[in-house]
């Protein structure tokens, strides 16, 4: 199909279950004369260059389609992107209204933390297991609960700089790698640092989950 690239959102980092491999996903809004759709472009985390460019028309081959959330296209290992010199009649959608991602600047005004257990083999999340021995529902690995990895989930109210209403968001401490000397065992310090840091976040509007965070340099 031939599509014009209408908008490119900031990339988000994803961890592939089972392999634990990190990948970069860039949500790209593409359109043709019949409408528009989000294409998730998967790339290597070290890859700087996207295979598509804003406003250009591309011939796209070997994409996969998922029929959830109104339909989503995703790149595959065999996807081919060919730039074509062609004009398309495309109605530009309201990007903010159609995208599942939103980027905001602001600061967390409350933070609460909860500890979750993760399977040692596949990293899938488990609600606190009540027995001493646990069988993972995802990979079937059996493990002692005391051996399971612990991870901290953070929830909080985020106040946008533009004074729009507070938003309830969840985030994972893995997205806070820019915090200096963060000791995850010391949740009080982590919370305190979060409450003092103005940051740019990109969050998923479907599940209110923060995908990326970066501090705003106060000069
Ligand atoms: Zn598992």
**Spans of 5+ residues with little confidence (pLDDT < 50)?**
none
E-strand count: 14
**% residues in beta strands:** over 45%
The helix content is under 10%
Shape: globular
Account of the 3D structure:
The protein has 219 residues and is mainly β. It folds into two domains: 2-99, Nucleic acid-binding proteins (OB fold (Dihydrolipoamide Acetyltransferase, E2P), Beta Barrel); 103-215, Nucleic acid-binding proteins (OB fold (Dihydrolipoamide Acetyltransferase, E2P), Beta Barrel). Helices cover 6% and strands 51% of the residues. The protein contains two helices and 14 strands. The chain has helices at 95-98, 187-195, and strands spanning 2-8, 12-15, 22-32, 35-44, 57-66, 72-84, 101-118, 125-126, 133-135, 142-144, 149-160, 167-172, 199-204, 209-215. Strands 7, 8, 11, 12, 13 and 14 form a six-stranded antiparallel beta sheet that branches. Strand 2 and strand 3 (22-32) form a beta hairpin. The protein starts with a strand and ends with a strand.
Q: Which key phrases capture this entry?
A:
219 residues; 2 helices; single chain; 6-stranded antiparallel β-sheet; 5-stranded mixed barrel; OB fold (Dihydrolipoamide Acetyltransferase, E2P); mainly beta; 2 domains; binds zinc ion
